[in-house]
Fold:
Amino acid sequence: GAGVSQSPSNKVTEKGKDVELRCDPISGHTALYWYRQSLGQGLEFLIYFQGNSAPDKSGLPSDRFSAERTGGSVSTLTIQRTQQEDSAVYLCASSPRVGDSPLHFGNGTRLTVT
Amino acid sequence: RKEVEQDPGPFNVPEGATVAFNCTYSNSASQSFFWYRQDCRKEPKLLMSVYSSGNEDGRFTAQLNRASQYISLLIRDSKLSDSATYLCVVNLENSWGKLQFGAGTQVVVTP
Structure:
């Protein structure tokens, strides 16, 4: 498609379960970013990829969070043993280059942990 | 001090008026600056990049003040459709790809 695609759009899960969120970036975009946004809050940086490598993982909130990107395209964000404080909208963005080009965001995945 | 700070507002602006607000950043070596707008429960969308010399896009003007480490956004002739949260974005020099978002400034344009 023309834009960044994220799936699922909504996910409700029970506390303690693992979840996997998917992001399909715009074709040809080298950089891919994950952010999360809690209700009424700003965007919290999680991780970015340059190609398949993640030079900066400092934003991941805990070791329950991991992300990978394969083939320089699709990325998955995995949250293990989900907690209620993980509830948020997880936004993925891509850009042609790292750092100096604007981000194009997907519609996000709204995660609710019950 | 937060890396990127914004006045949360809200800025209540009569239709047709001008509104301006700033965003301060802590890293003096930051190189990339953007303004995004976010509508309620929607994803952020790029409004404009901010260049060293300042730049204008229609009714929107962005400025960069490196000495005082802030960027500004000015909206002229405000429209009802300008009501949104405006997010400033700054890269961190020691992590080129880490684009840090401010918490946003809410603008409400009233008839």
